[in-house]
Amino acid sequence: MRRSGRRLAAAALALTLPLAFSAPAQAHDRGADQPRIIVTQDGEVDDMDSFIRFLYYANEFDIAGIVYSSSRYHWAGNGADVAPYRWTGTAWVNEYIDRYAKLYPNLRKHAAGYPTPAELRSLYKIGNVSNVSEMTQVTEGSEWIKKTILDGKPGPLYVQAWGGLNTTARALKSIQDQYSGTRNWPALQRKISQKVVIYNILNQDATLADYIKPNWPDIKIIDNQSQFWSFAYLWTRQVPAAYQPTLKAPYMETNFLNGHGALLERYRTYRDGKPTPGDDENNRWRPDQNLTYDVHDFISEGDSPAYMYLFDFNGLRSSENPTYGGWGGRFAPNASGWIDTTDVNTFTGAADRAFPQTRWVADLQNDFAARADWGVTPRYRDANHNPRATVREGLDLSLKPGRSVTLHGRGSDPDGDAVSYRWWQYTDAGTYGGTLGLSTAGPNVSLTVPADATAGQTIHLIFEVTDGGTPALKHYQRVILTVR
């Protein structure tokens, strides 16, 4: 398994973190070379759907915790002066893991590394759920996060905020309370700030602004404040029409909702007639509401980008640097780390804050559809699996302006399907502002580094291999040319 040795960085701020190592496109074992993550979520309908998808990709991560938190949209109440608000309970997580257990024997036939249901149950902890932004209580969830932050394993440790950050804030506050003022505190705080990376979806409570940033200013934050909406409730306004079919009812019914096992029986869609107990204010399930959507259109997985950012198995290398972009969006440096940014929409020609996410929708939906098949297909040969792309010259090249090069790509498929090839320049990810005239011939591409490119600028090229299976699956290789 290849170690890239690169560091996740925002060059303008000279912020560096250890890299989550790349993984092969096919089966592999979980371990130290995979992104280490803690999921925190608040039990909204889209968290539930994001969690279902997450379970199908659980083999791609070193999962260190699954923690229930609250948010400004959902809390449990305290049984006294705080009433519950849109509270969906905590039992559904274990129910979904039980349903995952029914698919687990099949999933293992298609890829190695899936955690056992027992492992997942052992990682599930209840955090600070009594109220929005509540972080005064020390909870099972906050202590679990604290213990994980303080363990001897090196970073990065990606803490994903699908809801509020209050349980994470409580964990950090407990560390501060215990060690602040001691001789080792400055060094410990620096070490933690280098280890922890927060992927924040929206600002779903006040604890990031009120506690984490003032007290832990060097913790890096990947801040998704708007791109996630393109994979959430209002996707019809964000996703280009050409990519919307994979979110509409016929695709959803064929690939997920019908005949795909116990776990996807719980996957929620628009107007499906299935209320969420406790969340009476969310009427998107009602057949007589939301009439701009068809029954069983995609509803929302607004939190899935938090872990899709770490999908290195697809070859996009997105976790190496948030500015690279991939299935979890693309980001630009800011004072706290990175904030979601724009790509040029290839359909409109305009800068579009949703497009770094929406450009991948068809690919990531087809990939999920294949894994949905894995869960109900006991024989490897009866399902589709990702092809494999490689580039002979390697993935990091350094060339002077005016130099020409031919890159030799190769594609293969474990199922014996025919493969097709495409090379394209990801102009938004590179720091060279112009476009190259790529000359392609099958899996190979020839190019010349432009004369106006200056030293240190980068050019990102994506080699894309698509198989002929159903659904059609892809694997990519990102080649980064750095100008000498």
TrEMBL record:
<dbReference type="InterPro" id="IPR036452">
    <property type="entry name" value="Ribo_hydro-like"/>
</dbReference>
<dbReference type="Pfam" id="PF21027">
    <property type="entry name" value="Sde0182_C"/>
</dbReference>
<protein>
    <submittedName>
        <fullName>DUF1593 domain-containing protein</fullName>
    </submittedName>
</protein>
<feature type="domain" description="Cellulose-binding Sde182 nucleoside hydrolase-like">
    <location>
        <begin position="36"/>
        <end position="331"/>
    </location>
</feature>
<dbReference type="InterPro" id="IPR013783">
    <property type="entry name" value="Ig-like_fold"/>
</dbReference>
<dbReference type="Pfam" id="PF07632">
    <property type="entry name" value="Sde182_NH-like"/>
</dbReference>
<keyword id="KW-0732">Signal</keyword>
<feature type="signal peptide">
    <location>
        <begin position="1"/>
        <end position="27"/>
    </location>
</feature>
<dbReference type="InterPro" id="IPR048527">
    <property type="entry name" value="Sde182_C"/>
</dbReference>
<feature type="domain" description="Cellulose-binding Sde182 C-terminal">
    <location>
        <begin position="405"/>
        <end position="483"/>
    </location>
</feature>
<dbReference type="InterPro" id="IPR011483">
    <property type="entry name" value="Sde182_NH-like"/>
</dbReference>
